Amino acid sequence: MTTFASGTDTLTRDALTVLQPGFTGTTAPDWLLRRLGEGLASVGLFGRNIASAEQLSALTAQLRAERDDVLVAIDEEGGDVTRLEVRTGSSFPGNNALGAVDDVDLTREVAAELGRRLAACGVNLNWAPSADVNSNPANPVIGVRSFGAEPALVARHTAAYVTGLQSAGVAACTKHFPGHGDTAVDSHHALPRIDVPADVLSARELAPFHAAITAGTRAVMSAHILVPALDPDRPATLSHRILTGLLRRELGYDGLIVTDGMEMRAIAGTYGIERGSVLAIAAGADAICVGGGLADDETVRRLRDALVAAVRSGELPEARLADAADRVRSLARWTTTAKAARPQPAPDTEVGLRAARRALRLTGADAFTPLTDPPYVAALTPVANIAVGDETPWGVAAELFRLLPGTETGTFSGEDAGLATLAAAGPRRIVAVVRDEHRHPWMAAALDTVLRSRPDTIVIEMGLPQAPPRGALHIATHGAARVCGRAAAEIIAGA
Fold it and tell me: In the prediction, which pLDDT does 183 show?
């Protein structure tokens, strides 16, 4: 595609302003700094960009030296989806654990501490919380990222999370509108479809977004899902009926609308990222998130030029692009004002662990005696979804080793996982760690095999606790964050 402008005219600056690209590396590349000077107003960070809090602070300072009001966004949900602690596991339990506790004050405190840490590192926009009602237990991408399956519970915790996060001066981006919970397809791979009547959507999916809007969420992220009751033709991200008709007009939302990652196959594999970006802005989106998989200057150039060309051809009204860019700048102004107006609260470094401990649900605890000898930890490991990724460690082995030195561990999957676990464990007490047993027949079969031979096995479910509890002791953690593993290990070792 031909480059239309040098980056100095208003139209081209607006086209750059609505993009939220990513990049590779732990320092800002030259092309990104140049684009900030040309009008780019947002940058998205991922785990690949973060090595430590100190490095992240230096990176955000580097970005602000080029543009002091830049929006620095991150996908930091806590729990299973963490970027700040991608290499160690999160210090905060995820939404499902908070929903299991069902203490809105605790949720607010967790979000406030997470916001404090983000703000201290120079991040001012968080693509969180997930407000999806996980009504489909087979959902392959939401699961423990949701506060739960009951709309009222999800609504009150979504509002508490938004309030807590924004109290630290970090803008919340409530996702995935109009609700990704009742899907059996991961939109990273294909286009999911939700076939329920509009009244069900209103009472179930939309309730948490009502609550988030009332709580003042500064941003909302669209979902790449087809909802025929709302728009039979286009996915929500590209739907004028959903983004402008429903979210703006019916729900009265006036903040920033951000798309989910445009390189996800639900969009890239159907419309393509250039066409998809034009349609998204025309539908009412204000910011184009791209950079999880595509993270280079060429992507920025392609999307910028596609938007400019669409305006010049008359396909995209220039006023719509200008309005979108103004909304981006408005959020940038809010983050600058919020940071100046809010003194940073004192750290509460233990709030995540306290929440994780409270989220545990134990079955068989009355007859359980804590271990004194190091066990064998068998992690029955499914393939991680793209949102969670496979970089972040999970489980209980590291925490049990700390409490019971000599603990050994192995990872197992597939039809022979049960027999392989028994062979590897030998005479040691087995701790079997699973993640969404109900979604993986091989995992359930492996547990059957292990428990037949070793009924004293301890089972820890670190996903959704949908399968019936079993084992000499069953611990449901409601998530696989590091603090969830620590809380479970404390029970096993009697710490």
Answer: 80
The gap between the terminal CA atoms of the chain, to the nearest Å, is 62
Name the DSSP class of 461. Answer: E
| Closest C-alpha among 261, 215, 228 to residue 75 | 261
- Residues 23 and 29: beta-carbon distance below 8 Å: yes
Q: Catalytic residue numbers?
A: 188, 260
| Residue 220 and residue 204 in contact, taking contact as beta carbons nearer than 8 Å | no
Chain centroid to Cα 192, Å, comes to: 18
Are residues 169 and 114 in contact, defined by beta-carbon separation less than 8 angstroms?
A: no
Pairing of strands 473-476, 361-363: antiparallel
Helix (H, G, I), strand (E, B) or coil at 397: helix
Give me the helices (H) in 67-206, please.
95-101, 104-120, 151-167, 198-203
Euclidean distance between CA atoms 159 and 46, whole angstroms: 25
| 98-111 residues labelled b (16+ CB within 10 A) or e (exposed) | bbbbbbbebbbbbb
| Low-confidence spans in the chain with pLDDT less than 50 | 1-7
Q: 């953690």: which residue's tokens?
A: 477
238: which 2 tokens?
């590209």
DSSP state at residue 259? P
Query: Is the Cα torsion angle 20, 22, 27, 30 positive or negative in sign?
Result: negative
Query: Do 476 and 361 contact (CB within 8 A), yes or no?
Result: yes
Q: For the stretch 129-165, what's the b/e string if a residue is b when 16 or more beta carbons lie within 10 angstroms of its beta carbon?
A: bbbbbbbbeebbbbbbbbbbbebebbbbbbbbbbbbb
Rounded CA-CA distance 179/194 in Å is: 9
Task: Give dist(CA 474, CA 468) in Å, integer.
Answer: 10
Contact indicator for 304, 316 with CB cutoff of 8 Å: no
CA nearest to 169, candidates 118, 109, 110:
118
pTM: 0.94
Write the single-letter amino acid at 259.
T
The pLDDT score that the predictor gives to residue 162 is 98
What pLDDT is attached to residue 315?
97
Alpha helix locations (H) across 70-150?
Answer: 95-101, 104-120
> At residue 115, what are phi and psi to the nearest 5 degrees?
-65, -40
Do the Cβ atoms of 47 and 391 come closer than 8 Å?
A: yes
Euclidean distance between CA atoms 476 and 362, whole angstroms = 7
Helix ranges (H only) for 397-481 are 397-403, 417-425, 441-453
> Which residues have C-beta within 8 Å of that of residue 101, sequence separation ≥ 6?
107, 355, 358, 359
Distance CA 146, CA 161 (A): 12
Question: Residue 130 belongs to what H/E stretch?
Answer: none
Question: Which one-letter amino acid corresponds to residue 162?
Answer: V
Helix (H) or strand (E) holding 3: none
Contact by Cβ (8 Å): 22, 291: yes
Helices (H), 317-437: 318-341, 351-359, 397-403, 417-425
DSSP state of 6: -
Phi and psi angles of residue 295, each rounded to the nearest 5 degrees, phi first: -145, 60
